[in-house]
Structure formats: C-alpha cells, structure tokens
C-alpha cells in the first residue's frame, strides 16, 4: 500500500521557522530547493553538500504529542508509510526518486525554537522519522503518493 504527502516544510537557514509550501523541487544530491540543507546551512550539514538532503516523519505520531507537524523541523510529513522499512530502499514521491538512509534521531531543537514545555526528543523517541537522499530530481507536491518498493517476503 502506498502513502501520501500531507505537508512539505522548508527553512532557508538553521534556526529559522519552517514554512509550509505546496510544492518544491527535490534536487538529486542536494535536497529541497530553498531549504537550509540544500544550501548547506542546516545545523547538521556543517557545510557538507548533500549531508542531510531531506527528512520525513509520519503524521500518525503528532496527535497527543503536544507538537504540530511544522514544529518537528522535518521536511515532509507523510501518512500511511512505515518509514523505517525504507532504510536502504528506493521509493518515489510523485516523480522524484529517494533512498532511505537512516533513522532521524529526535532532538530538542523544536522545543527550544518554539518555546515548548514538552521535550520533542522524549515525545518522539523511536518516532523521529527518516533521513533520505534524493536519487532523481523532480518537483514534489502536497498530496503526492509515496510509492513504496515491492515487499520481498
């Protein structure tokens, strides 16, 4: 079964508020056009091009967490996708191709930036999402399908 993109967020520099966009160009080897990691200005890129191209998180973990999805600092919020299953696998969002790289550890940057009392790190323990790289460039849109690779049992 395939999932769906519910939201796309980017921020041009580390520490700046995320902003919601309806579409964005996913650029192979770089990230989402206009995002801090595309410009090597993200907290975890340290000036290294393509070090952390895009992050995804599952929407099912937000109800009751005390956080809104935009506060997660993740780029793409999806529904009905088991993200950890995508580590090491290629998948499509719209017509762009991605590859799951590793689990995205939650930190407390969202708590600190948004003045939250609750710890994002604790609220999203084992639910931090996925870091992915972009294999093939294309524009992605809110409501695009997340097309998963076939399961080989």
Automatic annotation (TrEMBL):
<dbReference type="GO" id="GO:0030151">
    <property type="term" value="F:molybdenum ion binding"/>
</dbReference>
<dbReference type="GO" id="GO:0003824">
    <property type="term" value="F:catalytic activity"/>
</dbReference>
<feature type="domain" description="MOSC">
    <location>
        <begin position="73"/>
        <end position="146"/>
    </location>
</feature>
<dbReference type="InterPro" id="IPR005302">
    <property type="entry name" value="MoCF_Sase_C"/>
</dbReference>
<dbReference type="Pfam" id="PF03473">
    <property type="entry name" value="MOSC"/>
</dbReference>
<dbReference type="GO" id="GO:0030170">
    <property type="term" value="F:pyridoxal phosphate binding"/>
</dbReference>
<dbReference type="InterPro" id="IPR011037">
    <property type="entry name" value="Pyrv_Knase-like_insert_dom_sf"/>
</dbReference>
<dbReference type="InterPro" id="IPR052716">
    <property type="entry name" value="MOSC_domain"/>
</dbReference>
<protein>
    <recommendedName>
        <fullName>MOSC domain-containing protein</fullName>
    </recommendedName>
</protein>
